[in-house]
């Protein structure tokens, strides 16, 4: 049985990072095709991700031949009005965007040297076999592969944590993928809300679904975010996201297949900082002053003598007012004390207390 209470679920561990509500959100830097076909640029992206404070870097492990076939018919082309890749042949696009398999080892080695977890989305069984040879610490199920249950079971059967993106998926399809992973004994799951649109309009993120998703599948949830900027990701943390994945690049002006919706270095650093701030701000259910507010309590308003008075003078709105700091009677007591007389002299700034009247 799984619990709908997120705080009761065990943490998921990927590399050095613990995933769960008790920890800041894990930040995954998705390289995708932003290496632009250059290993040196791929390695620079890893260095940038480490400098910006990401916890992990993620690749995509496929070739054009393992993800599609070399056919040129309308079904194997993107729509003519696609925002980023209008009319592109799938085979050619995947040839351009794929990360050569021989690059994985040097990329993963550099990531390890820099303290980053490094793993990948596997797109077919040969990719799983290859990645197992590199001893990856986790796997990612891409949104378009969430309905490929044999592939999901293959990744889950490695015993490694599994991050499942859910773009386009119905709740029934998400449930089927989660059940497929658990059917081979793997319950180290994180399920990511996702909108498979590039870039994704913020209003399509539907972040209020995250707590519902967590309860429905009994797993930690997060966000694979394709919106521009970091606003959606920060908001997701407030709704329970424990993992945030964003595409990253060295510079959008350099171009590249995914650059238009990818974060630049300063934005990735801000993502790490602001999502952690959002997580810290969640705190706990609490009312009343916090320890940080102790000094502020002294500066609540109270009734004070605001001009010198002598014994026998009446309390008026001119000589007694509600001002900062505390120490006198509460402001609402003024109607009770108005018109009463002072029994002793009092200097300007004296808190008004019952023993003065």
TrEMBL record:
Region listing for Disordered, in residue ranges: 1-23
Domain annotation AFP-like: ranges: 302-357
BP GO annotations: carbohydrate biosynthetic process
SMART domains, A to Z: SAF
TM stretches of this protein: none
Superkingdom of origin: Bacteria
Gene Ontology MF terms: N-acylneuraminate-9-phosphate synthase activity
PANTHER family from the UniProt entry: N-ACETYLNEURAMINATE SYNTHASE (PTHR42966), PSEUDAMINIC ACID SYNTHASE (PTHR42966:SF2)
NCBIfam families cross-referenced by the UniProt entry: PseI
Protein name: Pseudaminic acid synthase
Species of provenance: Actinocatenispora thailandica
Encoding gene per record: rkpQ
């Amino acid at each position: 049985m799984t619990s709908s209470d997120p705080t009761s679920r065990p943490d998921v561990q990927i590399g050095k990072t613990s995933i769960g509500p008790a920890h800041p959100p894990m930040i995954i830097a998705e390289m995708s095709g932003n290496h632009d076909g250059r290993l040196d640029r791929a390695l620079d992206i890893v260095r940038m991700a480490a400098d910006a404070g990401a916890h992990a870097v993620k690749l995509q492990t496929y070739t054009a031949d393992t993800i599609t076939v070399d056919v040129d018919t309308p079904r194997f082309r993107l729509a003519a009005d696609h925002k980023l890749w209008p009319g592109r042949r799938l085979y050619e696009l995947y040839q351009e965007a794929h990360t050569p398999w021989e690059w994985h080892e040097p990329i993963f080695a550099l990531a390890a040297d820099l303290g980053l977890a490094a793993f990948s989305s596997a797109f077919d069984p040969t990719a799983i076999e290859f990645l197992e040879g590199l001893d990856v610490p986790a796997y990612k199920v891409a949104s378009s592969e969430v309905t490929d249950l044999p592939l999901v079971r293959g990744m889950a059967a490695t015993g490694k944590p599994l991050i499942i993106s859910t773009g386009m998926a119905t709740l029934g399809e998400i449930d089927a993928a989660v059940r497929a992973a658990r059917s081979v004994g793997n319950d180290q799951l994180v399920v990511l809300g996702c909108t498979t649109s590039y870039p994704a309009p913020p209003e399509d993120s539907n972040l209020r679904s995250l707590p519902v998703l967590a309860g429905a599948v009994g797993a930690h949830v997060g966000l694979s975010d394709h919106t521009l900027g970091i606003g959606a990701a920060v908001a997701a943390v407030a709704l329970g996201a424990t993992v945030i994945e964003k595409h990253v690049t060295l510079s959008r002006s350099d171009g590249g297949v995914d650059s238009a919706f990818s974060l630049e270095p300063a934005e990735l650093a801000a993502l790490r900082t602001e999502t952690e701030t959002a997580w810290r701000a969640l705190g706990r259910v609490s009312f009343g002053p916090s320890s940080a507010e102790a000094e502020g309590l002294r500066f609540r308003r109270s009734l004070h003598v605001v001009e010198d008075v002598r014994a026998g003078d009446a309390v008026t709105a001119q000589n007694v007012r509600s001002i900062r700091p505390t120490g006198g009677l509460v402001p609402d007591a003024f109607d009770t004390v108005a018109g009463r007389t002072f029994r002793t002299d009092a200097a300007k700034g004296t808190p008004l207390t019952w023993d003065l009247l």
